[in-house]
Design brief:
Layout lengths: L16 E4 L2 E4 L18 E3 L2 E3 L1 H8 L14 E4 L2 E4 L18 E4 L2 E4 H6 L2 H15 L8
């Protein structure tokens, strides 16, 4: 079997060995691919053969709250290609809390509740609707 070789420095490992990602590592060389901080036995996440700390895994792969920028543990709301903690998903105008089932509109790439949307000037609502319709057609103008 022999002495394992570190996947990072390619030197023999004579003390504690970390085995992960199909390789052996010196404890101090098994690090997050993004921030390069060692895990020292703490939890790591794997994706496509790379190791990530919890924060960077969620930051890169979509589970940081759009409002508080913290890792979302447990349930979350996804809308407008973003994720929110359940208690942070709210109207961007009046701050009323919303759920995944609440009817809302997109305004400035953020959610706005129906009540606030109805208060917007008619011309602005028309422009938002045209923009939304254009986006729904893949950016193509409406056929006339």
């Amino acid at each position: 079997m022999g002495i394992p070789i570190c996947g990072a420095c390619r030197r023999p490992i004579e003390e504690r060995v970390v085995t992960a990602l199909g390789k052996h590592w010196h404890v101090e060389h098994f690090v997050c691919i993004k921030c390069e901080k060692p895990f020292f036995g703490n939890r790591h996440y794997e994706k496509k053969g790379q190791a990530y700390c919890e924060t960077h895994y969620h930051e890169l792969f979509g589970n940081l709250c759009f409002v508080c920028n913290q890792v979302i543990y447990g349930d979350l709301v996804t809308a407008l290609n973003k994720a929110w903690c359940l208690h942070h998903f709210a109207c961007s105008h009046c701050d009323v809390k919303m759920t995944q089932k609440t009817k809302f509109f997109e305004f400035d790439q953020k959610p706005i509740c129906k009540k606030c949307y109805e208060k917007l000037p008619q011309e602005l609502k028309k422009r938002l609707k045209r923009h939304h319709d254009t986006q729904a057609r893949g950016g193509k103008p409406a056929a006339v």
